Amino acid sequence: MKYVHPDIVVGEPVPEVEPRVNEVVLAHRLVWIRVLRWVVALLLALVIAFAIFRVSMMVRYVAAGVFYVGFLTWAFHPSVQKNRKKHAADRWSIPLRVEIRFQILLGLVISLLLILLMTGDGISEVGPYLGMMALFGGGALICMSFVAREPGQICCVDCEYPLVGLTIPCACPECGRMIYDASWTTDRARVRSGWFVPVGVLAAAFGGLMVYSSFANPGLMYGPMPRGVLMQLAPTDRDAFDELVARPMDSMQTDELIERLIAGNEGEDGWGYSTTNQQRWLAQFAGTGKISWDQYERMYGRVADWVRIELIDSGRGGGVRVGEEAAVRLISPRYIRLADAGVVVRYFFRGFEIGDDPDLKSGSTSEHYLSFLDGELGDSAYQYVQRASFVPDEPGELMIRGRVVVAMLPVQWKTQIRWDDPDGLFEVEPAWWKVIDLEHEIEVLP
Ligand SMILES: [Zn+2]
Prior knowledge:
Elements: H1 23-53, H2 57-75, H3 78-81, H4 96-116, H5 123-147, E1 149-156, E2 170-171, E3 178-179, E4 185-190, H6 196-215, H7 219-222, H8 227-233, H9 238-246, H10 251-264, H11 276-283, H12 293-300, H13 303-306, E5 308-311, E6 320-321, E7 326-331, E8 343-354, E9 368-369, E10 387-390, E11 396-410, E12 432-445
Parallel strand pairs: 6-12
Antiparallel strand pairs: 1-4, 2-3, 5-7, 7-10, 8-9, 8-11, 11-12
Helix pairs in contact: 1-4, 4-5, 5-6, 8-9
This protein binds zinc ion.
The site of zinc ion has 8 residues, from loops.
């Protein structure tokens, strides 16, 4: 590709020219840069807000979806698109710094969008993406230092020595190349910039280190971090956590870490597979009194919000009628995910109290697995679901009540609960338990 300047006349001095910038493409890039700056700011604010408020995966998907559709709608709008193709004819038709700014902003948008979709597993998850971006960005910058050109003065095609004032044909004063006509010149001189290579090498080295450390050797990145930073990251970042607990800790620091782990995983997405190491570490304190009742409450108390009594759909439709059999069950509509902190959380069910009927149905004094609460018809767990059928004998409101006790039991226990014993529910007091009284009102049709 030759960039021959139209102003060159053989036999006349080479004039000083305005850099031949493609104004249309330049305007297009400047509009993008302006918009992308706002987009980056918006995404950054979202990423930070989502991290602080620990939003659910659904909110993240919706936000990313809305953003994606909005951005594409803008980017493919005819007024934005119309000049895009003209750019291909002359790759180096705008100042290089504008193009670099544009590419960096685009890279930031892609990175931030990826980070937005992460569940908050800390920088160990974000690290590889940022590292990859830095690696490729740095590599691109180094390549640019050899090939990148931009609009400028008319110069020698070989050595980019400016030819302003010389009369063609002549020999290049710098390299001696004979310049017979305009085809031996260019006004797209290579960009000789001192910072391309050093910055590119630095970025690539940083990116490479980040990628390497996040896959092969997390300690490399976390090792130099002070304890305070690791404490901040430890609740959701496994590698930061591992580095922190590998260092000696006194009793107060242990208490702080326990509290941070519990506070950091209270949300709906807390205590997943990614926090396995944190849960194992917490397990060593089970039964030692190091974890308080309140802390156990925050780890396990959320069960109370989930478990409830539900009418089993008869399949006949039209609700419950006098003289027809109906059935209720105990259910948790969502999978109950709790910290596996060296104890098992089980529940006891006293039985369904249907209307004024003094007989409790389906209750027992034995413990049950929480995971059976979300059993569906057809699951193997469904046989363990507490359910009871009844035949209403009069129309109107029918109240169904039930008492659930959730308790934190050491693994080896087989515990019975004493529902009506004045000495207390348990023979040996669990470290934590919670009584949940449930009510569910049913409309009985005549
Ligand atoms: Zn030359």
